[in-house]
Amino acid sequence: MKQILFLILMIVLVGCNTNKNNYATSLNYLKFSKNVLNYQTSPTKKNDKSGLMFSDQGAWFAFSFPDSISSTTGFSGPFLMTQQNGVWSSASLTNLVIENNHWISHKTNSFNSHLEQTFHSENLELKQQLVFSSGHTAIIKSTLKNKSNLLQKVNYYFKNEDLLADGLSFSTNNNLLTITSSKTDAVGHIIFSNNIVLNSTDSTYNSDKISLELKPNEIKEFTISQTFIFKEHSWNDELNSIKNSTFQSVLDYRKAEKNTQLKLLIENRKPQFKDEKYAEVLAKAHLTLQNNWRIPAGEIKHAGLFPSYHYKWFNGFWSWDSWKHAVGLSFYKIDLAKKQIKLMFEFQNEDGFVVDCVFRDTLIEKHNYRDTKPPLSVWAVTKIYEKDKDLEFIKYMYPKLKLYHEFWYNKRDHDKDGLCEYGSTDGSLIAAKWESGMDNAIRFDNSKILKNGKDAYSIDQESVDLNAYLYAEKLYLAKLATALQKNDDAKKLTKEAEVLKVKIQSQFYDKKGGWFYDTTLDGKIFIKGEGSEGWTALWAKAATQKQAEVVKVKMMNPKKFFTKVPFQTMSADHEKFNPLKGYWRGPNWLDQAYFGVKSLRNYGFEEDADKATVQILKGAEGILEKGKSIRENYHPLTGKGLNAKNFSWSAAHIIMLLQKD
Length: 661
Fold this sequence. Notes:
The protein is built from 16 helices and 32 strands. By secondary structure, it is an alpha+beta fold. The strands form ten sheets. A nine-stranded mixed beta sheet has the order 7-8-9-10-18-1-14-13-12, with helices on one face. A four-stranded antiparallel beta sheet has the order 3-6-11-17, with no helix packed on it. The longest helix has 21 residues, at 247-267. The protein starts with 5 loop residues before the first strand and ends with a helix.
């Protein structure tokens, strides 16, 4: 679907002193978010991903701080995610240039609520703040102060840095700057106040110079509203919203909002994690999720989270990721958690199948219907329901969840023995491996694909994690059914769970090896290689206490799973263990680490679970360090962060590790 993007920047000169903050809200929790991520970067190429970008309210655009002092001032960007993989429009699209002035210092501070930077020259101080008022609009306020004892004559104008995105061109008409693109249907409009006259070439613009005089300690404010609006949204409504609010009211509201959310997370920590460093890591996890949040646009009908805006392949929405994001969000932003779930179920087929991943613009990137992902959606919905007891949400979701659950038995049970397999819709083995979520795990090295029926294929092995998830789903569905007074469903699901539990305990558990493994279809041969799927039976509470005790011993063995970053995807003593090149053949993914910790807690191994939690957060590079991003996965022996930065499900599982259930 084609999109039209309107970029509106309204620049207004206000010559008055700022009002004092009338907001009487204590911000005791917002302080933990100060500089937890480093947003300093000056992009030199359109696809420059060397730094992080700040966004909020689900906006499809973001900003950073410049990483060096120059003669111009402004925030880096905006970084536009209107193209599927994101591009920098410019190193800085709106700069305030002050003639005959040399900035000698530059200080930055970031919070979950806003960005702020301060420039100093010999006689002038310039403070700039940036806050998102909505998913369409960011507001930048620049406050220029004469800090000398003498009258200062100031000449200033506005201009852009060089364009970085291809195909953009400028045109002007009085105080209006229009941006068009030969690459997309996006159109930009920059509207300045009437006292500013614009001039442009195809790729640059500047305003006529304006002169003013500042008395000692006098200040002037420049407020910039930047709006990115898709065609399905109303610019007039957004413009009215901008006109009816002030920068300070928006900033006060956003500070209070973030403070409330952080309070929910920080006060709900398990008592053994009350150290301040854990409050800061919760603020970092919160901000990581915030930066990946996107409002509805194009084919996306509900808000949701990218896995990572920072990685070129992750500017979409994945089902497995979405269930995990939703559980993390449920601790502090339950409305967004529900939207994340609904987003993916908009793409459910009649047979219950839920798509693997979806994108805003399918002219650029196609949805993936070749496979689905492991069944964790009912877990996510139940965790949301446990927070607010919203029966209307459950009424909406229950038939969809039940149908999705039944899909596995209708389309992914090759021999109809009540134990399911991962598979694909197109008969490809690679998509069937993707369906497991563990794309190249060693247990699939010798797998083959089998046809079950039309658009239904299975791998020739029954997977312990899949059936453990399905066991947990039956119990979660039964709980939701009971809440909806669907007692027959609840009884049926509970009975099915009892039968499945016995099968999991008897077929997938190797008494000699003391581990849970996948098996061949007939259940007679274990597919060896100790991996993180081995503790999913404990996470689902499907193992016996004796089985859990044996599995726990291996989990806590430093030569196997209790590494520098414990509970990685496969045992460190396996010959195919290769974290740097393995993806799912050795790295620590924090979802699997969380499942491991939760597995220990489920069977009463609280001290081991606490020990592992501390070790995970301490061992994983940068998690407890200010300025460092949360990574997609980690090297379990060295702790080095691997692959994508700013990864959502890692952040969501950090929240889960530290929160009370």
